[in-house]
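Running log. JK asked me to keep both predictions on one page so they can be read side by side. First protein, sequence followed by its tokens:
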Amino acid sequence: MAEITANYLVQDSLELFSLPDIYFQLREMINSPRFSMNDIALVIAKDPALSARVLKIGNSAFYGDQARIDTISRAVAVMGNENLRHLVFATTIVNSFNKIPNDLMDMTAFWLRSLNCAVIAQLLAKKSAVLHCERLFLAGLLHDIGSLILYAKLPGKSLQVLLAADHKRYLVADLEQEIIGFTHADVGAELIKLWGLPDSLSEAVLYYLTPEKALMHKLDAHLLFLATRLTDSIQQNKSVPEILAEVSDETLSIVRLGESQIAEVIKQADKEFEQMFELIAIDKRFH
């Protein structure tokens, strides 16, 4: 039997993990000045689940006290392009992976961590004065997506990896390379390419564990690496100095952020994560 590669595994998974047409349609419309809020609302209205979520968000405390919103177009106008883009990206991607069995992974915990990383990655990018920093939100959300394909397509080997890692995330990639022959980052980058998402995103995900190897999008890779470190270290209640002691001087030099700026990001991330969690309501998808 021929050796399985990351590309082969993803090609074999596309039917199971394809994104719906509405994702690509709305992405194009949100990014183009040719389409009005009404045009976007008409497309959203074709998807009852997305319509209900947009209306719920438009009427949520996130947007303050205001008259009740009862039309999709009004909700879209209130949300604005950036929040709508986040909602569409996150909702469609989370829904595409809602059939992963919970045997190997608590899916609620997986998406909560990914969402937390997404919020931190975007805040770091803003602090670092990155143009179009919202792309780092998607990078944070997708950085671990390859793991889900490994769990679905190679559950036996994935279980071997998880048992050997014994809850130590920093051991996972090396164990994947040893046991499977490639890592979740390799798989995630291949999936992102086949979905037709930007090269900056696939390269950031491919090299988020080894950002020094990135070629064209080095800053994105280092920001994503730092975001994943912050996400895991915050969960372990580490202080900012403790976290930064584990981050290379190269990363801190490239992202151009100091201790006080990173502390501000962590503080702001708490608030923004709660808001984004309310927008996407991930915990209700997997019960």
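And the second, directly underneath as requested:
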Amino acid sequence: MPSPIPVTRLLPRDFGLNLGVCSSPLTKQLGHATLRVPVNAFHGKLACRLWSSVIHWRELDDLEPIGSGGFGLVFRATYFGETVAVKRVKCAKNKLASRQSFWAELNAAHLRHENLVRVIAASTQDNGEDSLGASGDGVIGTIIMEYAGDVNLQQAIYSAAEPLRPESCVRYATDMARGLCHLHAHRVVHLDLKPANVIVSRAGVCKLADFGCSLKLEVVCDRDASARRMEIGGTYTHRAPELLRGEDATPGADVYSFGVTFWQLLTRDPPYEGERQHILYAVVAFNLRPDLNKHVFSQPEPGRSFKELLSRCWSAEPSQRPSAEQLLAELSEIPP
């Protein structure tokens, strides 16, 4: 039964509430009404409260392309005078997967955590201009996010002149585990955790980004939705074997991906070499995992602790993997 108390009575007096439509066609409808999300102005202390389903296009300036992917383009820009990242999701060959990717990006939009890239605003409406590239035609939506940093973890691992020190690896891994803890506590799984999807801020803090493969665990009970989700995939080198078999996602799938990413931090090597199909088959059928015989794991400590933790992250049985909370506890106990 709906509460008789107006929603505005539950919010601060300075909270300017309005409603903007930004509802996924893949979500269920309540009767004949479209699901709506509360929105607010971006400026001032309201910026950390809720994401907005309305983009104030006139406040979006100085767009500069900084990247592209399978589902769209990424820009650096200013929004209400603040530097932001803007993701323009377009319709790729697989139209359903493109739409799913856009809506999946918003699975964590309501969350606020220092180790997650924050969503500021998103809209399915078009600004009617070509400043964001390919306006109108095939554009599914636009997402404005905090500009978390200039470098991702992939660049920090492979482009640096010197390898990361073990203590830096543990610190970055701890940041990722904290982000996963917050996601999993709110029943969201990332499903595409890898170095390229972790932003390193100028302060050296890692933030999980790119939620285009993410999933709210409540959706798993819908078998058809779960099957469609598998079409989006993820990065095969970091994808848990149960997902490769088409099974339902659990938080353990993120822990598996965390393990591969942590291994890359420690070794500066790619996880596997060889043809994709051969690797996929070996991971599922023969428990192929990244090599734990590297020099870094041969040291009594912390090498032994690294090796033991990674082995459990990669267990073939998701229930045997540590939780994100256990990862945090064990990382804090690794000797220097």
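Observation for JK regarding the second prediction: The longest strand covers residues 60-69.
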